[in-house]
Protein backbone atom coordinates (compact mmCIF):
# COMPACT_ATOMS: atom_id res chain seq x y z
CA UNK A 1 0.00 0.00 0.00
CA UNK A 2 1.21 3.51 -0.67
CA UNK A 3 1.08 6.72 1.30
CA UNK A 4 -1.93 7.91 -0.71
CA UNK A 5 -3.98 4.94 0.54
CA UNK A 6 -2.99 5.66 4.12
CA UNK A 7 -3.88 9.34 3.78
CA UNK A 8 -7.20 8.49 2.12
CA UNK A 9 -8.13 6.15 4.98
CA UNK A 10 -7.14 8.78 7.53
CA UNK A 11 -9.13 11.40 5.62
CA UNK A 12 -12.31 9.31 5.81
CA UNK A 13 -11.89 8.91 9.56
CA UNK A 14 -11.26 12.63 10.04
CA UNK A 15 -14.33 13.48 7.94
CA UNK A 16 -16.46 11.22 10.14
CA UNK A 17 -14.95 12.86 13.21
CA UNK A 18 -15.76 16.34 11.87
CA UNK A 19 -19.34 15.28 11.08
CA UNK A 20 -19.74 13.98 14.63
CA UNK A 21 -18.49 17.25 16.07
CA UNK A 22 -20.79 19.25 13.80
CA UNK A 23 -23.80 17.29 15.09
CA UNK A 24 -22.89 18.26 18.65
CA UNK A 25 -22.51 21.98 18.13
CA UNK A 26 -26.24 22.69 18.38
CA UNK A 27 -26.89 20.65 21.53
CA UNK A 28 -27.43 22.88 24.56
CA UNK A 29 -25.22 21.58 27.38
CA UNK A 30 -25.92 23.96 30.26
CA UNK A 31 -29.29 25.56 29.74
CA UNK A 32 -32.18 25.45 27.33
CA UNK A 33 -32.65 28.01 24.59
CA UNK A 34 -35.04 29.78 26.95
CA UNK A 35 -32.27 30.15 29.54
CA UNK A 36 -33.69 27.67 32.04
CA UNK A 37 -31.60 24.84 33.50
CA UNK A 38 -31.75 21.61 31.55
CA UNK A 39 -34.08 18.90 32.77
CA UNK A 40 -35.82 15.85 31.40
CA UNK A 41 -35.22 15.17 27.74
CA UNK A 42 -32.95 18.21 27.36
CA UNK A 43 -30.72 16.98 30.16
CA UNK A 44 -30.63 13.49 28.64
CA UNK A 45 -29.63 14.92 25.24
CA UNK A 46 -26.84 16.91 26.91
CA UNK A 47 -25.56 13.81 28.71
CA UNK A 48 -25.55 11.80 25.47
CA UNK A 49 -23.79 14.67 23.70
CA UNK A 50 -21.08 14.73 26.35
CA UNK A 51 -20.60 10.97 25.99
CA UNK A 52 -20.36 11.43 22.21
CA UNK A 53 -17.83 14.21 22.72
CA UNK A 54 -15.74 11.91 24.90
CA UNK A 55 -15.87 9.18 22.24
CA UNK A 56 -14.93 11.66 19.52
CA UNK A 57 -12.02 12.92 21.63
CA UNK A 58 -10.76 9.37 22.10
CA UNK A 59 -11.07 8.82 18.34
CA UNK A 60 -9.10 12.00 17.62
CA UNK A 61 -6.33 10.89 19.99
CA UNK A 62 -6.21 7.44 18.37
CA UNK A 63 -6.04 8.94 14.87
CA UNK A 64 -3.30 11.35 15.91
CA UNK A 65 -1.29 8.47 17.34
CA UNK A 66 -1.85 6.46 14.15
CA UNK A 67 -0.63 9.40 12.04
CA UNK A 68 2.41 9.85 14.29
CA UNK A 69 3.37 6.20 14.00
CA UNK A 70 2.93 6.17 10.23
CA UNK A 71 4.95 9.37 9.89
CA UNK A 72 7.75 7.98 12.03
CA UNK A 73 7.89 4.79 9.91
CA UNK A 74 9.90 6.61 7.21
CA UNK A 75 7.49 5.69 4.44
CA UNK A 76 7.21 2.02 5.35
CA UNK A 77 3.60 1.16 4.53
CA UNK A 78 3.86 -2.55 3.77
CA UNK A 79 0.95 -4.66 5.07
CA UNK A 80 2.84 -6.30 7.98
CA UNK A 81 4.04 -2.94 9.30
CA UNK A 82 0.63 -1.28 8.86
CA UNK A 83 -1.06 -4.27 10.49
CA UNK A 84 1.14 -3.79 13.54
CA UNK A 85 0.38 -0.05 13.72
CA UNK A 86 -3.36 -0.59 13.34
CA UNK A 87 -3.42 -3.47 15.80
CA UNK A 88 -1.76 -1.29 18.46
CA UNK A 89 -4.51 1.34 18.27
CA UNK A 90 -6.33 1.72 21.60
CA UNK A 91 -9.83 1.89 20.07
CA UNK A 92 -10.81 -1.38 18.43
CA UNK A 93 -13.63 0.21 16.39
CA UNK A 94 -11.27 2.77 14.83
CA UNK A 95 -8.63 0.11 14.23
CA UNK A 96 -11.16 -2.13 12.50
CA UNK A 97 -12.40 0.69 10.22
CA UNK A 98 -8.86 1.79 9.33
CA UNK A 99 -7.81 -1.80 8.79
CA UNK A 100 -10.73 -2.36 6.43
CA UNK A 101 -10.00 0.90 4.56
CA UNK A 102 -6.38 -0.17 4.14
CA UNK A 103 -7.31 -3.66 2.99
CA UNK A 104 -5.96 -5.35 6.10
CA UNK A 105 -8.09 -8.40 6.76
CA UNK A 106 -9.39 -8.99 10.27
CA UNK A 107 -7.48 -12.25 10.32
CA UNK A 108 -4.22 -10.29 10.11
CA UNK A 109 -5.21 -8.18 13.08
CA UNK A 110 -6.20 -11.06 15.36
CA UNK A 111 -3.55 -11.89 17.88
CA UNK A 112 -1.37 -8.89 17.08
CA UNK A 113 -2.91 -6.56 19.67
What does this molecule look like?
The chain is an all-alpha fold and 113 residues long. Helix content is 68%, strand content 0%. It is built from 5 helices and no strands. Helix 1 packs antiparallel against helix 2, helix 1 (3-24) crosses helix 4 (92-101) and helix 3 runs antiparallel to helix 4. The model has no long low-confidence stretch (mean pLDDT 86).
Radius of gyration: 18 Å
Quaternary structure classification: single chain
Helix content: 55-70%
**How many E-type strands?**
0
Shape annotation:
elongated
Q: Uncertain spans, ≥5 residues at pLDDT below 50? A: none
Give the ordered list of helices and strands: HHHHH
Fraction in beta strands:
under 5%
Spatial separation of the terminal alpha carbons? 21 Å
Mean pLDDT: 86
What's the main sheet like?
none
Query: Which class best fits the helix and strand makeup?
Result: mainly alpha
Task: Report the total helices.
Answer: 5
What distinguishing features does this structure have?
mainly alpha; 113 residues
List the helices and strands and how they pair.
Layout: H1 3-24, H2 40-71, H3 79-87, H4 92-101, H5 106-109
Helix pairs in contact: 1-2, 1-4, 3-4
Summarize the structure.
This protein has helices at residues 3-24, 40-71, 79-87, 92-101, 106-109. It is mainly α.
Amino acid sequence: MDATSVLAALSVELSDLAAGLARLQDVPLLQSEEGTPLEGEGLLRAMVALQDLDRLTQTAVALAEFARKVASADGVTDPPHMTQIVAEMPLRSVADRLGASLGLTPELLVGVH
